[in-house]
Design goal:
By secondary structure, the protein is mainly α. The chain is built from 16 helices and no strands. Helix 3 runs antiparallel to helix 4, helix 6 runs antiparallel to helix 7 and helix 8 packs parallel to helix 10. It starts with a helix and ends with a helix. The N terminus is likely disordered.
Amino acid sequence: MKKLFVSAIALLATVSLSAQDVTPIYNEAAAAYSAKDFATAAAKFEQVIDQGIDLDEAATMVATAKSTLPKCYYMLGGAAMRTKNYETALDNFAKSAELAELYGDMQQMAKANGWVAKIYQVQGGEAFNEKDYATAAEIFAKGYKADPNNTSMALNLAMSYCEMGNYAEGMEIYEAIAAKTHPKYAEDVAKANEMMALYTNNKVAGMQQAGDFDGIIAMADAQLEKNPESALFQNVRLQAYANKKDYAKVIELGESAAAAQTDEADKSLMYYLLGAAYNAREMKPQAIAAFKQVTAGPAAQNAAAALAELSK
């Protein structure tokens, strides 16, 4: 029994680590990184972290390993990209982002995730161009999760959802793009607003044809709950109430809907609907005042005719 006890103590001594044990591994890792052998560097830095994590005297080496390891995988991802080995690149960039987040390097995480998104953008592009929107959306969604600021891919994701009939999902992405304020996003913000209007008008047209004005109002209310200042959905909602001949609601909402519009033709349409509602309620002075605000677009001719009739 005594002999066995001594053997156990000896065994523990052989596996006990110190900074002296970690230092050679760290030096090998640093040399490999300097030589741009990033695969070897990554493996060695992982050893430094694993073996030195509980050693106070190895804290500096461990800290350096933690900051450098995500960069190793980032560089491996870049090398794979240069040979168009997208799957390997994706794995390495994703690993870089994961480790950077784990070790608190948010800048490195963002850089790596940016490339993750770009790879998914490339991979989803083929399906998107072939109008396989279900496949494209599945791939683009992964990229969007990695980098919501990749607005060119986000536009394709939103369009894929809308083309699949997933209107609400598409609008959510378009709204996120449209909410960006940095000048570098200006072109994509404009495109998002354009596409929101297109898909909304298409959806509204189908619901109008079915006489589902309450459905249009519910859809607009849901969007306005998220963004009360939305000119598009204030416009859509007011038109739906007008089509329902709910003149009280048109009168209640008309001024605010008009004020929200940035396009003069849309603003004029809101005032025309408001004037028509006042006229239907036999509120002549208010109707005249509203119709006089109609100055642009197709509604202007109708407003002029209404004013001529009211002036008799």
